[in-house]
Design a protein that fits this description.
13 helices, DNA_Partitioning_ATPase, Chromosome partitioning protein ParA, alpha/beta, AAA_dom, about 270 residues
């Protein structure tokens, strides 16, 4: 099993969209679980846009972490993906971690006992306890970035969270990738993409000059996910991408690349 976590402290970078469509692409290759670890429940809404809040309250990521329900009891399935959904109560996660710090590693314990080939975790757009919980459960981090002037600066902040997770005993985190998303063909996009290519060198510089980056794996720069009204509209309406379209092909390639880069072994074809 390989666990992939989408993480960025900045919102609006297509994090939940990418987590959702990558989950569907991976499900075409092996048994896949999507985990929504964000109180905003955007990934949950992609798969179940028309369900009432009560549908998410029954059993979810928060109830599983608190041992109020089992993973099996909480699973919902759609588009070939098993889903562990979020709920608004996940906003209280940081409060409960303050009372019982062992909860921050609970997701890792649950996932490592499961029998999935792939797990994809969506996290909040902040450096919260939910993000740390996901990073402690993951093998690989995927940092989605859009063509924004803040792209490089936000990556640096995520690196610090990754380093924090890597310092925990038993960390599985060995891979970091940067995924350009909502990527157009403007000169600005090209300029920022060139900046992203320098991120491995920036990390080496940070490791030699600052504290808090020493255990961050050297990042891989992935091919961009294109800016696409089809991706946006299909995601908004909770529909999978149509096979053969530009967006479908981009996420299909992403699935193949991360399987290769992380050495994932598929046992549940």
């Amino acid at each position: 099993m390989k666990v992939y976590t989408f993480a960025n402290v900045k919102g609006g970078v297509s994090k939940s969209t990418s987590a959702s469509h990558l989950s569907m692409a991976l499900a075409r290759r092996g048994k896949t679980l999507g985990v929504d670890h964000d109180p905003q429940a955007d990934m949950s809404d992609v798969f179940f846009p028309d369900e009432s809040p009560e549908f998410f309250d029954q059993a979810n990521t928060f109830t599983v972490i608190r041992s109020e329900s089992t993973l099996k009891e909480a699973i919902k399935s759609k588009y070939g993906v098993d889903l562990l959904l979020s709920a608004l109560e996940l906003e209280d996660f940081q409060y409960y971690v303050g009372k019982d710090v062992s909860l921050v590693t609970r997701l890792n314990e649950v996932l490592r006992k499961s029998e999935y080939d792939f797990v994809v975790i969506d996290t909040p757009g902040s450096g919260s306890s939910e993000m740390l919980s996901a990073l402690l459960a993951t093998d690989a981090v995927i940092i989605p970035v859009n063509p924004s002037k803040w792209a490089v600066r936000t990556i640096k902040k995520v690196f610090r969270k990754i380093n924090e997770a890597c310092n925990f005993p038993g960390s599985h985190l060995t891979s970091v990738s940067i995924l350009p998303t909502i990527w157009g063909k403007s000169g600005r996009s090209e300029q920022i993409f060139d900046q992203l290519q320098q991120i491995p060198q920036l990390l080496k510089f940070l490791q030699s000059t600052e504290i808090g980056f020493e255990k961050v794996p050297v990042p891989i720069i992935l091919p961009p996910i294109p800016q696409s009204s089809t991706i946006r509209d299909r995601t908004e309406f909770g529909e999978p991408l149509k096979e053969g379209t530009e967006g479908w092909l981009a996420y299909d390639l992403l699935a193949d690349l991360i399987i290769e880069k992380t050495g994932a072994v598929i046992t549940n074809k």
